[in-house]
Amino acid sequence: MVDTANQQTCLEELSRMKVSKKQPRNLPGALANPLRRLRGLIRKFVLLESLIYVGIVSLLGFWVIGLIDFMPVPLGAAESPQVVRGVVLGIFLFILIGMFVWHGLRRWMQPWSDSSLALLIERKYPQFRSSLVTAVDVSQRETDVDVGSSDMAAQAVQLAQKEIGQVDVHTILRWSRVRYQAICLGCLTVLSLLLFAIFPSWTIHWAKRFFALADQPWPRMTLIQFDGITLEIPQLEGELLPKTYMKKFQSQEVVVPRGKRGVLHVEADANRFVPEYCTVNYRLASGNSGRAKMRRLPSVVAGWQPFALEGPPFDAMNEDIRLSAWAGDMRLSGFKVSVVDGPLITAMDIVVQHPDYLRAIDDRSPDETLRYQSGLRIPQGSQVALVGYANKPLRQIDYVVLRTDQEAQGGLEIQSIAVNGDSFRIELGELTDNLRIEFRLWDQQELCSDRIPPYYLSVLKDTPPITDLIAKGVGTSVTPDAYIPLTATFEDDYRIRDRWLELRIDDQDQPNRPLASASDSGSTWTLDLRELREAERISIAVGNTVTITSAATDYFDLDGEAHVGRSKPISLSVISPDALLILLDRREIDMRARVEQIVVEMRQLRDLLERMAPNPSATGGRGSNRWPFTAIMQPPSEDDFVASETRDPAREQRVQQLRAQQSTMQGDKSFAELRGVEREIYQIRQELVHNRIDSVDRQQRLEQNVRAPIQQIVDNQFPKLVAGLRDLEARVASQTEVRDSLSNNLRATDAILSALEDVLKSMIDIQDFNEIIDMIRGMVDRQDDLLQRSKEEQKRQTLELFK
What we know:
By secondary structure, the protein is α+β, with helices and mostly antiparallel strands. Helix content is 43%, strand content 24%. The strands form four sheets. A nine-stranded mixed β-sheet has the order 2-1-4-7-6-5-8-9-3, with no helix packed on it. Strands 10, 11, 12, 13, 14, 15 and 16 form a seven-stranded mixed β-sheet that branches. Strands 18, 20, 21, 22, 24, 25 and 26 form a seven-stranded mixed β-sheet that branches. Residues 1-25, 142-149, 616-645 and 766-770 have low confidence and may be disordered.
């Protein structure tokens, strides 16, 4: 009998021996059967030993790896990740399979040769004295060599057959080692069953984590969980109290809008140990990391103690955040805050359905789509719809519509519509006032827009037509026979529909007079008071007040009535021709006074120009460009005759420039005043014509002897004088050719003065204004008496109608 070491060594040698591919053909059955039984027994031994090894390593590995996985948990460490457990499980299974294949299956499949088995038997039974090995070798050689004549080989076969009966193949292998291994396996099995009975939940939990790779944390004294992030909902107009919403963690991830401020919430099970604080570790996508302690809230909600964290990194979330939390013996990791773009409106279209009054004007299309832009104005009464486009699919839109002149109130209605897509449409109805619309968007990830953009719709209200009426050729007083040229202009947002003149005598309205041929730019009509009085039997007498107004309507029809626009009324007092002549004479006298004043100013201008002439005594008879000057409008003093070498040239030049500038200003003033006189004289003559005052001599005198000469002075002579004065000012500044320019201006001034003197001779010259005043007073008294008698007569006629 060989010991265990020899047995193992023998098996290893047998496995390394070269195996013949040819089996002996002449080996006797008595020798071949024990070899066959030994071969099968060895395979059973190897297989059993391999299975026992695998069982021992499996049980030890299960409990040891489980203990290693559990030990960091009471210290507050995080559980091993699923990936790590998967790798450990793969290595563990690889070791078991490798052990079974290498130490069991490989040896089990080894083709043991008869020579190796014979050698193993002879080592256990020495009495064979190598006869069994020799018999096997001889039988293998007999396959190729004739051994019939070999007496030694025959003796070896006979000896082996004689001793083979004493061989027990079960005693060749030592089974005690297998028994010890089986005992160890049994003890480990009993211990495992005992631990399972004591810690069933622990064992099952570990089996799920290890074999099923379940991501279930180990039971702990403290249980915490990430709740979510609270975000603020932007307030619409009319919302008084701020609102928030919470984004819950799902699959350890929560999605928040970019740039939003939030509050992180973690909650602990109040039925377990609740620590005083909870610590959060965070790492930003940019690489920055930090740690923050969460604030423990005072109240317990539904059995959970909440913790909250405000401030960094949740005060402005612009990048992804990795989170882990630790409290007591509980640690959470692998949580992520994903930052995405919040919903916002990228474009807004306005669908406008124009009202009927606009389509009747310019035949525009019923519907028009406009891209929203600041300052866009929409015609009043249009049916409006808003079509918005967002940057991502939407779920819901909250909006509020507020008139711009309406104050925000707490009860303002907030409307909501469901949306499925990245566009939406809101019907606003008829637009009658300026509107402000605010939108709050919710996307399909249940994220709210971080800001509320206001959109303003300004209504282009249809204004009444604007009309202006001007009476030309008459003043504020007319005679009963006057004819009045009227010029009316009309202007509207779109187009004028009807135009007319409104006539009113005192407090009585007269029939309107349509102006069908008028154009918007303006047209001229003649209102003949005598014709109205004679043809239409309208009473127009001295003392009446005639009020004329132009009016127009447009196509606006939303309120049931068109807009009516009226001009500023023209009020004309009806007076007698004598009274009008007195007024016109008084105005002509005023114009004469103005012409006389212009003459005085022109003479002063000439004196000023003369004072700018050179003083020969100061220059010593030499042709110098600098002369002494005296103060403006003052007689020469002795200082003007002081030798030029004692004067200050710079001061003299400044005085000369000052006089030149004063001359230019005086020329401009007189020119403007004379032009005003010419226009007033023209107006006086026009009033004589349009009031049908038969005073041909007066009209000719005003036109030929007064207005025409003044117009000649204004159009020809005065412009040349003004240009010459400006040229003189420039030459005085440069001190070049001053003498010639000064001479030309003096001649032009003299010519204007001569012409104005002739004009004065043709104008009315009344030395005593009291005569005019008395005449006006008498005229007014007669008019009052006539008016009083007319009223009494009308009253008498009215009373007679009721008799």
